[in-house]
Structure formats: C-alpha cells, structure tokens
Amino acid sequence: MAAVTKPLTVLYFAWLRERVGVSEETLTPPPEVRTVAELAVWLAGLDERHAAAFKDRKTVRCAVNQEFADPSTVLSPGDEVAFFPPVTGG
Amino acid sequence: MAKILVQTGDFDVGAEIAVLTAGRTDIGGLGCFVGIVREDKAHDAPDRPIQALTLEHYPAMTARAIGRIVEEAERRWSLLGCTVIHRVGRMLPGENIVLVATAAPHRQAALDSTAFLIDWLKTKAPFWKREELPDGAGAWVEARAEDDAAAARW
Fold first, then answer.
1. Given this model, what pLDDT does residue A5 score?
2. How much is the pTM?
C-alpha cells in the first residue's frame, strides 16, 4: 500500500472546526499514517486544539473525497479528508 | 428528473408543487414534507427558547449526498417527479428549513418516498444544526438515536 506522501487537505465542520480553530488545513502526515483512523490519531497528537477536537473519537465521523468513509478507509496522496460530528440536518 | 437545491433563501411550497405537476396528467399523488424551525427549548438550557438555528454544511459534498439519497428513492419507488430543497445559514423560528416533495402514480409511493427521503436526509447528508441562545451563546445539536432508527426502518 502506498504511503501518504503528498499533502492531504483536511477539513473540519461544526464543533470540530471550532475546536481546531480552522476549517481547512494542508498537512503531510508521516508515511506510517495510511488510514483515516491513523490520521485521526496523528492529528490528535499535533497540539492541544487538535487533541480537543479528537478527544471523543466515537463521535467523530469522516468523509474522504466527499464520500462518507470508515476509520479503516485507506488514504491516497492528495485526498480531501473531512472530519465532523454525526450529521443533524433535515 | 429530480430537482435538488441547497440554498440560503426561502422556498415557495406551492410554486414547487406547481412545477412538479405542470402539464402532467399521469400523476396520481403528491407527497410533501416541509421542515420548519421550531421555537424549541435549547437542549442544554431547558429554560431558554432558541433564538435561531444555523445550518452548516459541506458544500462540495452536500448536493452529491442528497443526489445519492434521491437515486435510492427512485430505485425503490416509481416516481414521476422529486424536489428536495435544503436551506443553509441562519433561520428564525417559524421559517422553512427543508422541502421534500415527490410525485407518483399512486399515493403509497408518494407518501412512502417522502418519508424515506426526509429520514435519510436527516442521517446521511452533511448538515449540522447549531442552536442560538438568547445570550448569544450557541450549542451544536446532537444527533438523535430516534433519527438513526427512523432511517434504518427503510
């Protein structure tokens, strides 16, 4: 499996956005970060704001390239990864 | 065939239904659901009614996600027309949030597909509601297990 070597675009919505403090960032995780779950763990270790956003991992959902994804979804270079709480539209 | 809109402005329910039925004689029934901002008690401040609701969404994904839900409705029922309009941004109590309208040859398909669409919209489209409280504070609305159960019955 190819490692994530090109930057990822990471988006945050709702309270994840508020906690991280930005709605979007471009990041290059280390090669061992291959899945959404591994990315979340890596992001949580970046600083206090990311740690707060990912503190309650069970309430964090994600999408990869605008499609809902699972924690086990494998990332590719240049993917757009979004993290958000469970949706509440309608 | 389906009309899908994500917009900040209000919509006219009568006009949307008129568009669905214009010039047609094959439609036997229309299903229609309109979601409205309720002047509810804030979920974490029961003594204070909410002042407004703000809908955030994931612009690059929203219309596509709604499109998938509509495609699923079209697979399950023989629809002759379908309109989904979801508002985003800040809305006051009493304002419309969402419109789902379907047209079908018979009532059961129209009614069932309307219920299906709003149940899935609540749980499978990237929208997030934030309640605005009287003091200017805000609180994100939490997802409800009842909504997941409603979506799962289909």
1. 65
2. 0.93
